[in-house]
Design a protein that fits this description.
Low-confidence stretches: 1-38, 146-160
Number of strands: 2
Strand content: under 5%
Number of helices: 16
Distance between the termini: 22 Å
Radius of gyration: 23 Å
Oligomer: single chain
Strand order of the largest sheet: 1-2
Length: 384
C-alpha cells in the first residue's frame, strides 16, 4: 500500500501527487485493525445462530407460553392447536421481536459512529441531544394541552391517532435539534467543541422537559414517565411500514461509510492527508446517527445503555477495530442485546413486565464492565 510519500532509488523522498477522494490511496492499517479478526471467521455464524435462537425464544415466551414447534408452524402459515396462539404470535410477539432486532442494531451502530467521530468511549446516540429532542417532542404532546385538541383521553387510551401524534412530535423534536447541530457542525472545526455543544443542548432540552413536567398534572406525568421506560411492544404492523425502511436505510448508510470510518481511527489530520473529506464525513455520521436514534426513540422511547455499551462489547468480542467487520458484528450484538433485554423484561410465565431501560442497565452493565476490566483498560478496548 502506498503512503503519502514514496521512496525512490534516485531521490531520497519524493512526494506523490495529491489524488481526488475517489482515487485516494488507502491507509495501511495492518497491525492496527486486524489484531485478531482473521482468526475469528467463526464469529458471525455463531452470532447469527444465537440471534435466531433469541428470536424464537422471544416468540415463545410470555404470559402464554407457546411450544417451539407451534411457533414454527404458525410462522410457516399453518394452523396452531389454539387459534389464540396465532393472534398472539402474529399481532403481538412477531412485530415486537422485529422491532427489537432493528432498534438494537440501530442504537448500537449509532453509538459506534459517535464513539468513532468524537474519539470518546463514553459517547452514545444521545450525546448530541437527538434523543432529548425526541423526548421534548413527546413531552409537548403529552404534558401540554394549550388548544384542548389533545385531552386526557389521549393519555389514557393511546390509539393509532395518539401514537401517530407521538411519533410525529418525537421526529419533529429530534429534527429540530439535528438542524441546530448540523448548522453548528459547519462552523465548528473541533469535534470536541461540537461534543460539548451537543451535551449542553441536551441539558437545555431536558430542562425544558422538566419545566413541562412541573406544570403538568399527575396523570399526564405518569403517561410520559411510562413512555420514558422504553418498550418494543407498542410498535404494530402499521408502524413497521415506516419503522423498518427508515432503520434499514440508516443501517445501510452506516455500512457504506465503513472505509472512511477506518480512516478516522488514525486521527483527523492523517485522514485529511489521505484525501478524506472530514467535514462531509462528519455531517454524514451525525445525520445517520440522528436518523437511527431519532426513529428508534420516536417509536420505542428513549432506550438507554445499548448505544454506549454494545460497541465496546463488539470490540472485545471481535478483537478488532476494523469497521468492515466491527459494523456488522456490532449490529448483530445490538439486536441480540435488545432481544435478550425484552425477554428478561417480560418475566417469563408471569403477567409482570419490567421497564426495558431498567433491564438493559441493571443486567447488562455488569457484563460490559467485567469484559472491559478483563481486557485491561477502556482506552485499549476503544482503540481495538
Amino acid at each position: 500500500m502506498n503512503n503519502k510519500f514514496s521512496h525512490s532509488p534516485h531521490h531520497p523522498i519524493t512526494p506523490s501527487p495529491r489524488l481526488p477522494l475517489s482515487h485516494s490511496p488507502r491507509p495501511n492499517f495492518a497491525g492496527f485493525l486486524t489484531n485478531a479478526s482473521s482468526s475469528r471467521s467463526w464469529l458471525f455464524p455463531i452470532l447469527s445462530l444465537i440471534l435466531a435462537g433469541l428470536f424464537m425464544l422471544d416468540l415463545m415466551t410470555g404470559s402464554v407460553p407457546i411450544a417451539p414447534d407451534q411457533v414454527l408452524h404458525i410462522l410457516l402459515g399453518g394452523d396452531a392447536q389454539r387459534a389464540s396462539w396465532e393472534k398472539i404470535v402474529w399481532l403481538f410477539r412477531l412485530p415486537k421481536a422485529i422491532t427489537a432486532i432493528l432498534a438494537g442494531a440501530g442504537l448500537a451502530l449509532s453509538g459506534l459512529l459517535m464513539q468513532n467521530l468524537f474519539r470518546n468511549p463514553l459517547a452514545g446516540p444521545s450525546v448530541l441531544g437527538i434523543s432529548a429532542g425526541a423526548s421534548l417532542g413527546v413531552a409537548v404532546i403529552v404534558l401540554y394541552n394549550a388548544s384542548g385538541s389533545i385531552g386526557p383521553r389521549f393519555v389514557a387510551d393511546l390509539g393509532l391517532t395518539g401514537k401517530a401524534a407521538m411519533v410525529c412530535s418525537a421526529g419533529l423534536g429530534a429534527g429540530m435539534v439535528l438542524a441546530a447541530i448540523l448548522a453548528l457542525a459547519r462552523r465548528v472545526k473541533d469535534v470536541m467543541t461540537l461534543l460539548i455543544v451537543g451535551i449542553l443542548c441536551g441539558f437545555a432540552v431536558n430542562a425544558a422537559v422538566s419545566v413541562l413536567i412541573h406544570f403538568s398534572v399527575a396523570e399526564r406525568i405518569q403517561a410520559y414517565v411510562s413512555w420514558t421506560f422504553g418498550s418494543f411492544a407498542a410498535v404494530t404492523w402499521t408502524d413497521l411500514k415506516l419503522f423498518v425502511p427508515v432503520v434499514l436505510i440508516g443501517l445501510t448508510g452506516c455500512l457504506l461509510i465503513r472505509k472512511p470510518l477506518n480512516g478516522l481511527l488514525l486521527g483527523e489530520a492523517y485522514a485529511r492527508s489521505m484525501g478524506l473529506r472530514i467535514n462531509l464525513l462528519r455531517l454524514v455520521v451525525i445525520g445517520l446517527t440522528a436518523l437511527l436514534a431519532g426513529t428508534v426513540t420516536a417509536f420505542c422511547g428513549p432506550v438507554a445503555f445499548i448505544g454506549v455499551a454494545v460497541p465496546h462489547l463488539g470490540r472485545v468480542v471481535l478483537g478488532s477495530a476494523d469497521h468492515r467487520r466491527l459494523l456488522p458484528a456490532t449490529a448483530l450484538l445490538g439486536a441480540m442485546t435488545a432481544l435478550a433485554a425484552d425477554l428478561l423484561a417480560q418475566f417469563p410465565g408471569s403477567q409482570a413486565v419490567l421497564p426495558l431501560n431498567a433491564v438493559t442497565a441493571l443486567l447488562g452493565a455488569p457484563v460490559i464492565v467485567w469484559l472491559i476490566v478483563r481486557r485491561g483498560n477502556l482506552q485499549k478496548t476503544f482503540a481495538g
